Each structure stands twice: as structure tokens, then as C-alpha cells.
Amino acid sequence: MSGPDLPRISADSNEIGLFQIGASQIGDIPQFDVWQTIISQYANSPILTTILLNLFQYLDQTVNLENFFDQVLNIDTAVGYGLDRWGRVLAVNRVLSIGIGPKYFGFDEGLDYDSFGPGGQSPFYSGQKLTQNYLLSDDGFRVLLLAKAFSNICDGSIASINRLLVMLFGSSGRCYVVDSGGMAMIYKFEFPLSPLQYAILVQSGVMPRPTGVQATVEQG
Can you spell out the DSSP letters for 175-210? Predict the structure, then answer.
């Protein structure tokens, strides 16, 4: 669109027609003249005049405000402390407790089969316990925060829970929820969950569950 009556914008974007951005008077409000604040005996002082002429540049908080928005307020770009603040708002912890290592070699003596495995399939116990605390990276924590935000506003239907499962675990394979009847539901995963994924599922508080409904996990 063009025409003789349209304002001309210069190539360096410092003026629109005869209006100079940051210099021309707006309406009947007179432009501030910094030279009116300098008495004649200091008018030739290069240090003083430079400070006064550049005062706005020195005090300009635009960059700081932009960084604050990007690194703290905007959850899509926030990092470190900013995401930790979002964690407090959404009641999500960056640190998760995960299981202690794989199954170890054991025998059928009434012990917990989830902790011990048969010979030839499970290693001997090394005598060193692995740490249970896992600190999520910024990218992983951001996904968890967005999932919790979605969980807070979703209607708790199967379709909404399935969307949440795909958001959290969809990159690993098929996962979905099944209504098994009798006030019970099953989270089904067609792949084995890692200890971290299992901790996200059962400990993070992200997954919604209708009141009075029992939830179990099945994994392939």
C-alpha cells in the first residue's frame, strides 16, 4: 500500500516523515532541553555535559526488564531461578526421588520379587547405594511445569489425561489411560518406564486423578 498522503519512513527508522523519533515534539508538550539545566560556567565541561546528555541511556532499564521477562516471567524461556519460582507457584519440585538401581541377584525365600531377580538376569549387589534424588534440567522441569499447569485446568476426562500422558511420555512410546470400571483406572505404557519417568508419574503430583478413583500403572 502506498500513496502521496502516507507518511514516509526513513531507511534508518529514525524518522517518520518530518517527525524525528525521540526528538520531535509530541502535541503541545515541549521537548525537554537538557541545556536548560546546565549553567554557563559548566557548559564547556565535556565530562558533565556527556553525563547529562547520556543520562537516559545510563538509567534505561529496558534491557533489565526484558531479561527479567525472558528469564523469570515467561515460562517458555525462563531458566534456573525463574523456573524455580514457577515451581513454587505451581507446587512442583525440581528434585524427584527415584528408585535405587536395578534388581539384584536373589533367591526364592519369600523376599520381594520387585527388589531381587534370578541368576543370569540380575547383577550381584555392589554394596553401594545409588542416590535417590534427581535434579531435573531446565528443559525437563519446564515440561513438567507446563504439564502441571495443564493438569490444573483440565477436566479430568480420559481425553485430557491422555493428552497429558503424551505431553510427558509420548516421545518414549504409546501411553494412555483406561477406565477399568469399579472406580478404578489404569495408566498403560507400551514401553518400560525409566526410574525418572516413574517418579514423575507417581511422585510429582502432576497427573490428575478423579476423587475416589484408584489408579494403577501397567508398563510393557
Answer: EEEEE-SSSEEEEEESSPPPHHHHHHHHHSS-S---
Which single residue is written with the C-alpha cell 483440565? 154
Separation of alpha carbons 150 and 75, rounded Å: 13
| 218 in Cβ contact with 187 (< 8 Å) | yes
pTM of the model: 0.59
* Domain contains 183: yes
H helices present in 69-136, as ranges: 81-90
Domain annotation covers residue 191: yes
Calpha distance 4→36 (Å, rounded): 39
Return the closest-CA partner of residue 93 out of 84, 102, 80. 84
Q: Helices 195-203 & 158-169, crossing angle to 10 degrees?
A: 150
CB 94 within 8 A of CB 81: no
Q: Please choose, from the candidates 70, 67, 32, 79, the residue with its C-alpha nearest in 3D space to the C-alpha of residue 52.
A: 32
Q: How far apart are CA 20 and CA 117, in angstroms?
A: 78
The residue among 31, 59, 87 that closes a domain is 59
Please write the tens of the pLDDT for every residue from 147-179: 889 888 888 888 888 998 998 888 889 999 988
Is 161:177 a contact under the CB 8 Å cutoff? yes
